[in-house]
Specification:
mainly alpha; Ferritin; 7 helices; globular
């Protein structure tokens, strides 16, 4: 009987470890970064590849959040800004995907789990709260992206990546200005 209990306990721990490992394997960005780790010779190349993978994952998230706002919000200004975000982020996503394909960088195919949770959380918000919380979330994402893009632009030696980053920074800053103005109008 004691041996059966030990076997069951061992099986339980093995299944817990396996399920934790599967959760990590299902994250498409983690998979991409793991593949990139093996592909690139230098740490700088790997960091650039990871940046591209992270930026693409973030673009997917922002597109999902913007699509949510364009359909959920009853505020015409929010809908318009959200639709412009979808358009701008899709262009940027395509540029990053093209660069990744050209450079052999493995990339995620969707937004991360945190973004999925945020979309679900925001989709449950009532109308007056939704617009404010959506603006806060997107503005926060833009501020973070601007900091990360500026750092990579300064560190990267890849001229194509630097060009994409420079163009994206212009768009991100313009979008952030619109979001900040929209947020003031909503309050």
């Amino acid at each position: 009987m004691k041996q059966i209990c030990n076997i069951l306990i061992a099986a339980f721990f093995i299944s817990c470890i396996a399920s934790c490992d599967n959760a990590k394997k299902d994250d498409s960005n983690a998979i991409a970064e793991k593949k990139n780790e093996k592909k690139f010779d230098t740490r700088a190349e790997e960091k650039e590849a990871d940046f591209v993978a992270d930026a693409i994952e973030d673009k997917y998230a922002e597109i999902k959040l913007a699509e949510l706002a364009s359909t959920k919000s009853s505020n015409k200004q929010v809908q318009d800004v959200a639709q412009q975000l979808v358009n701008d982020q899709t262009v940027s996503l395509t540029a990053l995907q093209n660069l990744a394909n050209k450079k052999g960088i493995s990339i995620p195919v969707e937004e991360g789990e945190d973004a999925k949770k945020k979309v679900n959380e925001l989709s449950e918000q009532g109308d007056p709260d939704f617009d404010k919380k959506w603006c806060d979330e997107i503005a926060s994402k833009h501020e973070k992206a601007i900091r990360e893009y500026e750092l990579m632009r300064d560190r990267s030696t890849d001229t194509e990546l630097k060009e994409i980053i420079t163009n994206d920074l212009i768009v991100l800053r313009a979008q952030l200005d619109k979001l900040n103005a929209l947020e003031e109008d909503i309050m």
